[in-house]
Amino acid sequence: MALKGIAVLVTGATGGIGQALVRELVSQGAQVLAVGRRGEALHALASGLGERGRQVQPVQADVATESGVASIVTACRQSVAPVRVVIHAAAIGGFGGFESTQPAHIAASLQTDLLAPLLLTQALLPLLKAQPNAQVVAVGSALGHIGYPGQVSYCAAKFGLRGAFEALAREYADSTVQFQWLSPRATRTAFNSAAVDELNARLKTAVDAPEAVAAQLMGAIRNRRARLQIGWPEKLFVRLNGAFPALVDRALRGDLAVIRSFFNRTATPSLLAASNTQER
Ligand SMILES: NC(=O)c1ccc[n+]([C@@H]2O[C@H](COP(=O)([O-])OP(=O)(O)OC[C@H]3O[C@@H](n4cnc5c(N)ncnc54)[C@H](OP(=O)(O)O)[C@@H]3O)[C@@H](O)[C@H]2O)c1
């Protein structure tokens, strides 16, 4: 889809991948409705783009609330350029042992990472169906395919979102709205705590720059790819986990002691902080 002159809604626009996506989008001529809870960060993003910052409309909203979804829908209705692409990139992470994860964090994770994109998509579908063609993109994760120790609620949310997007793609296959599931692997952003960064280094897990991830996501959006998993060996692991999960069970069993040794480095309060505060 040519992006010049159309509007793209990006949630998680203040995040590492979101900001890189916004920069790519404005450089290709799109108008961007940039959503985040932190108004200052949204304005800083727009002003950092100079002249092109005019293409960015900050929409300060919490996607996990009914009022937040309502104000995003209003901003889309009022957009001068028609919104034809919706990119769901907002999410909260959290790494740690399941038993010590706060119930409030589990709930917030499912609310933000799974329910919010579904409810926002549902609310925006009337607008999207009125366009000659439209795309709804879930920024997924390799952990939406591979259950990983220490990431129980995040995996639950991303697996759920992947199922929902697969079902939506099939339910709307004869329509003008396309649903895409595009999955980064580990990416260098504030999403990951220092402990997770250290664990990735210890396990020699490749970590991508957010700009590289945004460039791949944009390519998949332009080419209307239904699915994308970024990176080797993640592409292979995702397939292996689907076809021969016992092999991945064994590989992760081998890493379990190392992974578990990092659980306590993410204190439980920071899991709550990640979901409940607007500061980082
Ligand atoms: N980083 C990775 O390793 C990695 C790997 C695979 C997939 N992903 C996926 O990539 C996407 C972007 O991640 P990232 O690395 O860019 O994360 P990030 O830097 O932590 O950014 C997260 C974004 O989500 C927004 N957000 C969180 N809760 C929100 C809420 N309730 N309402 C509105 N906005 C909310 C944050 O905005 P405010 O704080 O301003 O609200 C921020 O813009 C996520 O879907 C993530 O699951 C990331």
Q: Give the SSE string.
A: EHEHEHEHEHEHHEHHH
Per CATH, the class reads Alpha Beta
By DSSP (H or I, 4+ residues per run), the number of helices equals 10
- Taken together, the total number of domains comes to 1
Which hetero ligands occur in this complex?
Answer: NADP nicotinamide-adenine-dinucleotide phosphate
Low-confidence stretches: 267-280
Q: Specify the biggest β-sheet.
A: 7 strands, parallel
Mean pLDDT: 94
* Strand element count: 7
CATH-derived architecture: 3-Layer(aba) Sandwich
Q: Which structural class should the secondary elements be placed in?
A: alpha/beta
Shape: globular
Radius of gyration in whole Å, from Cα? 18 Å
CATH topology description: Rossmann fold
Strand order within the widest beta sheet:
3-2-1-4-5-6-7
Provide the fold topology:
Elements (H helix, E strand, L loop, with lengths): L6 E5 L4 H12 L3 E6 L2 H9 L8 E5 L5 H13 L4 E6 L14 H27 L4 E6 L12 H20 L5 E7 L10 H9 L7 H13 L4 E3 L4 H10 L1 H17 L6 H9 L4
Parallel strand pairs: 1-2, 1-4, 2-3, 4-5, 5-6, 6-7
Explain what you see:
- The protein is α/β, with parallel strands linked by helices and 280 residues long.
- The protein has one domain: Rossmann fold.
- It contains ten helices and seven strands.
- The protein has helices at 16-27, 39-47, 66-78, 103-129, 152-171, 194-202, 210-222, 234-243, 245-261, 268-276; strands at 7-11, 31-36, 56-60, 83-88, 134-139, 177-183, 227-229.
- The protein has a seven-stranded parallel beta sheet, with helices on both faces.
- α3 (66-78) packs parallel to α4 (103-129), α4 (103-129) runs parallel beside α10 (268-276) and α8 crosses α9 (245-261).
- The radius of gyration is 18 Å and the shape is globular.
- Residues 267-280 have low confidence and may be disordered.
- NADP nicotinamide-adenine-dinucleotide phosphate binds next to α1 and β2.
- NADP nicotinamide-adenine-dinucleotide phosphate binds at residues 11-18, 35-38, 41, 62-64, 89-92, 112, 139, 141, 184, 186-187, 189-192, 278.
